[in-house]
Amino acid sequence: MKKTFSIILGCCLIVGVVFLGTGCGSKNNNENEEAVTQDRAISIDSSITESIDAVFDKLNSGAIGEEEAVESIKEIIPKPADHPDYPKSNVNWVIGWGEGGGSDLYARNIGREAEKFLGKSFVYNNMPGAGSEVGYSFVLGQPADGYTIFGTVNPNMCNDAFGDVPYSFAEETQFIISNQGSSEALWVLADSPFKTIDDLVKYAKENPGDVVYSGSAAKSETELSFYLMENHYDIDMTYLGFEKAGERVSSLLGGHAQVLYESVGPVADLIRAGEVRPIVYLGANVYDGIDPDVPSSEQIGLPSVPRYRGVVAKNGLPVDITEYLYYVFYAGAQMPVYKQYEERANLHYSQPWSLDPLEFKAYYLENKKKLGEIIEKNY
């Protein structure tokens, strides 16, 4: 029996769809506007994104100011052909987590910049609970007309893969954009005997169960990554799960764990102080600003569970509105103030990262399948 401990075993998911109607921010003022059914497939025009990029090149070089850049990009982004007046009113952005957390800050920071191109404001509604499923259940009860969107993160994929929700997220969702990827690593204390990931694996093989791996609560992407690593290297470690980042970090600093799965942000001060160091970056990127000699998991062939943030809506969102919102958020993610937010939050380590609606859905389906295989083998 594998030794696995979790301080918090996760939330009890709410199975029923919650319709909160009048109590959750701006009401849809477009109830009489019927969505136009479109037969064509979503098509993202690379010439439009290239033109947007060219404007940002001018802005970043100082050749033009922000106001001119915004106006130029608004002219580049085509209005929805079948809904030329969209949006007629503000757009409700449902956030499935509490105020002040990573998902909340992401929505408010990219939303503030994206609405400069949208021409209307986003109204943010925090609906935390059940790994963000309370908020998404509300979204599924709204019209698919572009006036209710949702900020999605990894737990939606995990809950879907575990079958903990009464729907298929992929089938019920219109993917719009993902523009934040993984900024995680495996961390050890500066004086750890594990100088590399190979050192850890060698020790774990010789001492089954002795390596304690600290991460998030049970059934999280962190625990799934733990199992992926065990399966890949054919080793046996002990998982120590915590709900809060501070508890996870303390378990490493206090010697209760020998390796920590965590994003850069919660350990940034410890990195600068020389108290912790990475042994592998999780994902495709090498974080040159931390240690360019440490490999990424992709480089060494170690599979890892993807981390992402993005924007989605209820399935049935008209194609032209989906494409329009993609361009709006694509531009918003390149605004200098948004880039400064990513730097402050240490999220720039995930860049470059941008998935359009089709890429985002394919990425989701591919990785949900991978999670299903992990779950079948280890739970």
Describe the structure.
- The chain is an alpha/beta fold.
- Helices cover 41% and strands 16% of the residues.
- The chain has two domains: 200 residues, D-Maltodextrin-Binding Protein, domain 2, CATH 3.40.190.150; 118 residues, D-Maltodextrin-Binding Protein, domain 2 (3-Layer(aba) Sandwich), CATH 3.40.190.10.
- A six-stranded mixed sheet has the order 1-8-7-9-6-10, sandwiched between helices. A five-stranded mixed sheet has the order 3-2-4-11-5, with helices on both faces.
- Helix 1 packs antiparallel against helix 2 and helix 3 packs across helix 12.
- The chain starts with a strand and ends with a helix.
Tell the overall outline: globular
Structural class: alpha/beta
CATH class of the largest domain: Alpha Beta
The CATH superfamily of the largest domain bears the name Bordetella uptake gene, domain 1
User: Please, what is the average pLDDT?
Assistant: 90
How many helical stretches? 14
Say what oligomer this is: single chain
How are the strands of the biggest sheet laid out side by side? 1-8-7-9-6-10
Low-confidence runs of at least 5 consecutive residues = 1-37
The percent of residues in helical segments reads 40-55%
H-E string: EHHEHEHEHHEEHEHEHEHEHEHHH
CATH architecture of the largest domain: 3-Layer(aba) Sandwich
Largest beta-sheet details: 6 strands, mixed
Proportion of residues in extended strands: 15-25%
